[in-house]
Amino acid sequence: MAYITVKDLEPGYEGQPVTDKINFQVNKGDYLCIVGENGAGKSTLMKTILHLIKPLSGTISYGDGLEEYEIGYLPQQSFVQKDFPASVWEVALSGNLAKLGRRPFYSAAEKKNTRERLEELGIWELRNKCYRDLSGGQQQRVLLARALCATTKLLLLDEPVSGLDPKVTTELYRLIRKLNQSGVTILMVTHDVHVAIEEATHILHIGDNRELFFGTKEKYLESSAWKSFGGKEEK
User: Which of 38, 39, 63, 61 shows the shortest CA–CA distance to 49?
Assistant: First the structure.
């Protein structure tokens, strides 16, 4: 059974759908990229999957041992978030909040988990730094560590390289690829369809004319969605 199964889902606001009904699955080990024109509903879909927005219709179900709280999320950063006055350690540690239950304090295991995630992402030495004093690339690594503290099963990433320079962008994509190769399932919104083709195993395309595609990247390269969106840039 799939980690996530989306069936006849209509994401939207105030009764107005932003896409036609969407159907897709995310299986363990997948690297699924959601692509499409700006304003087509990619981020709205992501928030609907996370139950931050109620769907207008359709269902989202979980399986293969995945619990709803076992999903790590790296959202697009706002200016306020970038200026957050907390230490790197505090931000990353907060990824364990869902595990606390009624406990008022973090356990030794949760602190150990946080240290391992910071070390894994190469930012342990920044743990006492103020988050708002970091570079954009460092901040994204901290937020990625926070998401990994929540789970190592499934990460949802919404435009994770937005505003980063090319060198840092390349490094972050390399890091996400490494996480996927280590067994972390990735669901990522990206505006760069060529990155999706290079990195992903599967593509979900949401067109501004409500054209939808879901399948392997190989099938995507044969589809009308690719020819009308990404393929036209190569002519």
Answer: 61
What is the extent of the structural domain holding 156?
A: 4-70+151-234
Q: Which two tokens stand for residue 200?
A: 């992903």
- Amino acid occupying residue 81: Q
Say which CATH number the domain at 209 has. 3.40.50.300
The C-alpha R_g of the chain, in whole angstroms, comes to 18
16-17/12-13 β-pairing: antiparallel
Assigned domain for 77 exists: no
What are the tokens at 134?
Answer: 């970091």
Q: In terms of domains, do 35 and 101 share one?
A: no
Average pLDDT over residues 213-224: 94
Over residues 178-196, mean pLDDT:
94
- In a 3-state reduction of DSSP, which class is residue 96? helix
Task: Report yes or no on 81 lying in a domain.
Answer: no
Q: Which of 71-80, 151-160, 188-197, 216-225 has the lowest mean pLDDT?
A: 71-80
* C-beta atoms surrounding 55 within 10 Å: 20
Q: pLDDT (tens digit, 9 = 90+) per residue, 206-215?
A: 976 667 899 9
* Residues paired with 22 in a beta bridge: 9
What 8-state DSSP symbol labels residue 234? G
DSSP 1-23: --SEEEEEEE-EETTEESSS-EE
Q: Which of 114, 131, 149 is the last residue before a domain boundary?
A: 149
Asked which of 149, 174, 193 is the last residue of a domain, the reply is: 149
- The mean predicted confidence, pLDDT, of the chain is 89
Separation CA 219–CA 16 (nearest Å)? 30
Name the amino acid, one letter, at 41.
G
Split into its structural domains, the chain has a count of 2
